[in-house]
């Protein structure tokens, strides 16, 4: 393998990327746009959840309750009614929950026997589950403040959050976005550029030249490895500046693991390019094989333990499953190589296998 010819192919590919305004725009803007879009959209905490208060006998205590609910950032009281069919109220007001207090709420609250019913809109299970625990917690704090005394507890639990004490969802989702964006960009751009060369016939011209297949492959993969690495840096930079996500662990280990992950992404893209002949097909296959499995089956959004057992087995072959453990461990928990070496080893094996398969198919095809 001649290093000069390899550098020449890589330089040609860099020059082509710089001349292709659309590709360059996608490379630069897509990671940042996805970071902002998913970073702000994916939130596990609730804000201004619409609720309805059913108050059959308005009193000073019930009005204070309504004001306290409205003042809480988690809830938004859309309506206070005296009575009504809960199902019709939910449909009419589009509320997520109904809080119904008894007629003697003011009297019973001082005696410690107030009855409160919480009716949840189960059409959104995630929101309903969150409200199921948020509303009793609100009443616990509200009653303690109204009575100016703390209700007796049979068991006192001292609960503390480690690694993410403020429970910011961005600290959980930003590393997952990094895994999703990197594998999607790496596989998509690699598969599309090789199939574009096929369509234009320039790949055949390269093949009949003095260039070896290895020089063509490495020369074409090198620019996208560099570009994807820069994208990863920008993702972490946006996470730091916008979402206040700091790297607590070893940045060097994270960089090496990210390099292995990018090699996996490039191997997937190169393998796809040897299977399909058109850019549209390569794009669809790249998105289908990278984006959806990463989001659904890697632990990015849904916990792996909640998946059916066959899908848990399938998740083991998803590269993002292993990379997420590394990036979340390093960013959130300051985990080291000794804690995550097996995940890095799996990524290394995946990278070698995918690149060998893709290279073998590329040589056989051309």
Quick structural summary:
The protein is an alpha/beta fold.
Present the secondary structure layout:
Blueprint: H1 3-19, H2 21-41, E1 49-54, H3 60-71, E2 75-81, H4 86-93, E3 97-101, H5 105-111, E4 116-120, H6 125-147, H7 169-200, H8 202-207, H9 213-241, H10 251-275, H11 279-297, H12 309-315, H13 319-333, H14 337-365
Helix pairs in contact: 1-9, 2-7, 2-9, 7-9, 7-10, 7-11, 7-13, 9-10, 10-11, 10-13, 10-14, 13-14
Q: What do these coordinates show?
A:
- The structure is a single chain.
- The chain is α/β, with parallel strands linked by helices and 366 residues long.
- The chain is built from 14 helices and 4 strands.
- The protein folds into 2 domains: 3-42 and 167-365, no CATH class; 49-147, 3-Layer(aba) Sandwich (abc type-2 transporter like fold), CATH 3.40.1710.
- A 4-stranded mixed beta sheet has the order 2-1-3-4, with helices on both faces.
- α1 packs across α9 (213-241), α2 runs antiparallel to α7 and α10 crosses α11 (279-297).
- The radius of gyration is 27 Å and the shape is elongated.
Q: How many strand units? A: 4
The computed structural class is alpha/beta
Mass-distribution shape: elongated
In which order are the strands of the major sheet placed? 2-1-3-4
Portion of residues within helices: 55-70%
Number of domains: 2
- Range of strand content: 5-15%
Distance between the termini: 17 Å
Compute the average pLDDT: 80
- C-alpha Rg (nearest Å): 27 Å
Topology pattern, helix = H, strand = E: HHEHEHEHEHHHHHHHHH
Major sheet: size, sense and barrel closure?
Answer: 4 strands, mixed
Contiguous helical run count: 14
